[in-house]
C-alpha cells in the first residue's frame, strides 16, 4: 500500500513526520536512487528509500499501555527539560503517545509506533469513550452537574454532551466519574474551572474497552491482541484517514 513518503520515514522509527519533511526538502532523501520530492507516495515493501545514503527499515508495530504518573510530558521532545512518558516504556522502538494527558494528570495512556492506529483512536469521528476519575475541592450541586453534562462553552464552542456522576462526597471535596468522547486541551479542568471549581486530581481509567486494571503507577505493559483489535475495529472512511495522515 502506498503512503506519503514522510509517513514511511516516520513509521520506520528514524524520526518524526516533521523532521522527515525537512530531510526531504533538504534533498537528503532518495527513492529508488533519485532525489525524492515532498508529498510523493511510496510503497515501503517495493521502493528503496534512503536517508543520508542509508536505507530505512520498516519496524514491527508495537502497542503499550502506561499508567502515567504526574510530572511527565506527553511529548517526544521537551523544551523545558521535563521528564517524558516515553522514558517509562522499556523499548528501543521510537513510539509516541496516542492523545495526551497534561503534566499534572495521571492514568491510562496508550503509546505506539502505528500512526493509522493512533488516528483511529484520537480522531473525533471515532467517538471513543474516555473515562476519568476527577477530584475537586467543594461540593457540586445538581445544577452544576447538569451544566457539565449538557456542555460548557470553551473557546467559543460548547463541549459535546458527556456523562458525569458523583462517586463520593466528603469533607475534602467531590470525586466524579467523567466520560467524554472528545479531547480538547485540558478539557475537563477547564470545564470545571468555568464553574468555579479547581481540580485537585485527574486520573484517566479507561479508553474504549481498555482499562488500567491493577497496573501500578509508572508501569507499562503491551496491549493484548484483543485490545488492539477492539480499537482497530474503529472505522474511519479513507478520506478521513488520509486527511488526518497529512496533518501528522
Structural features, described:
This protein is an alpha+beta fold and 248 residues long. It folds into 3 domains: 3-55, Structural Genomics Hypothetical 15.5 Kd Protein In mrcA-pckA Intergenic Region, Chain A, CATH 3.10.290.10; 63-125 and 214-247, Alpha-Beta Plaits, CATH 3.30.70; 129-207, Alpha-L RNA-binding motif (Alpha-Beta Plaits, 2-Layer Sandwich), CATH 3.30.70. It has 7 helices and 19 strands. The protein has helices at 5-11, 17-25, 115-122, 142-150, 187-193, 225-232, 238-247, and strands at residues 3-4, 29-31, 34-35, 41-42, 49-51, 54-55, 63-68, 72-73, 83-84, 96-98, 106-112, 130-136, 153-154, 157-158, 163-170, 173-180, 199-207, 210-211, 220-222. Strands 7, 10, 11, 12, 15, 16, 17, 18 and 19 form a 9-stranded mixed sheet that branches. A 4-stranded antiparallel sheet has the order 3-2-5-6. Strand 2 and strand 3 (34-35) form a beta hairpin. Helix 1 packs across helix 2. The longest helix has 10 residues, at 238-247. It starts with a strand and ends with a helix.
List the helices and strands and how they pair.
Blueprint: E1 3-4, H1 5-11, H2 17-25, E2 29-31, E3 34-35, E4 41-42, E5 49-51, E6 54-55, E7 63-68, E8 72-73, E9 83-84, E10 96-98, E11 106-112, H3 115-122, E12 130-136, H4 142-150, E13 153-154, E14 157-158, E15 163-170, E16 173-180, H5 187-193, E17 199-207, E18 210-211, E19 220-222, H6 225-232, H7 238-247
Parallel strand pairs: 8-9, 11-17
Antiparallel strand pairs: 1-4, 2-3, 2-5, 5-6, 7-11, 7-19, 10-11, 12-16, 12-17, 13-14, 15-16, 17-18
Amino acid at each position: 500500500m502506498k503512503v506519503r513518503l514522510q509517513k514511511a520515514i516516520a513509521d520506520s522509527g528514524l524520526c518524526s513526520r516533521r523532521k522527515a519533511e525537512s530531510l526531504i526538502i533538504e534533498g537528503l532523501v532518495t527513492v529508488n536512487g533519485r532525489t525524492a520530492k515532498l508529498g510523493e507516495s511510496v510503497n515501503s515493501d517495493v521502493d528503496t528509500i534512503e536517508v543520508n545514503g542509508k536505507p530505512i527499515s520498516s519496524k514491527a508495530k508495537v502497542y503499550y499501555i502506561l499508567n502515567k504518573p504526574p510530572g511527565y510530558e506527553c511529548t517526544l521532545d521537551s523544551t523545558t527539560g521535563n521528564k517524558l512518558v516515553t522514558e517509562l516504556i522499556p523499548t528501543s522502538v521510537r513510539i509516541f503517545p496516542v492523545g495526551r494527558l497534561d503534566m499534572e494528570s495521571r492514568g491510562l495512556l496508550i503509546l505506539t509506533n502505528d500512526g493509522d492506529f493512533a488516528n483511529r483512536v484520537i480522531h473525533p469521528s471515532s467517538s471513543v469513550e474516555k473515562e476519568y476519575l476527577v477530584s475537586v475541592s467543594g461540593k457540586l450541586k445538581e445544577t452544576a452537574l447538569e451544566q457539565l453534562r449538557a456542555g460548557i462553552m470553551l473557546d467559543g464552542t460548547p463541549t459535546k454532551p458527556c456523562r458525569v456522576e458523583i462517586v463520593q462526597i466528603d469533607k475534602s471535596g467531590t470525586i466524579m466519574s467523567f466520560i467524554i468522547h472528545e479531547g480538547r486541551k485540558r478539557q475537563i479542568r477547564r470545564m470545571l474551572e468555568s464553574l468555579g471549581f479547581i481540580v485537585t486530581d485527574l486520573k484517566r481509567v479507561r479508553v474504549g474497552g481498555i482499562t488500567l486494571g491493577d497496573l501500578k503507577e509508572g508501569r507499562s505493559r503491551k496491549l493484548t491482541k484483543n485490545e488492539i483489535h477492539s480499537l482497530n475495529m474503529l472505522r474511519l472512511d479513507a478520506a478521513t484517514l488520509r486527511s488526518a495522515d497529512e496533518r501528522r
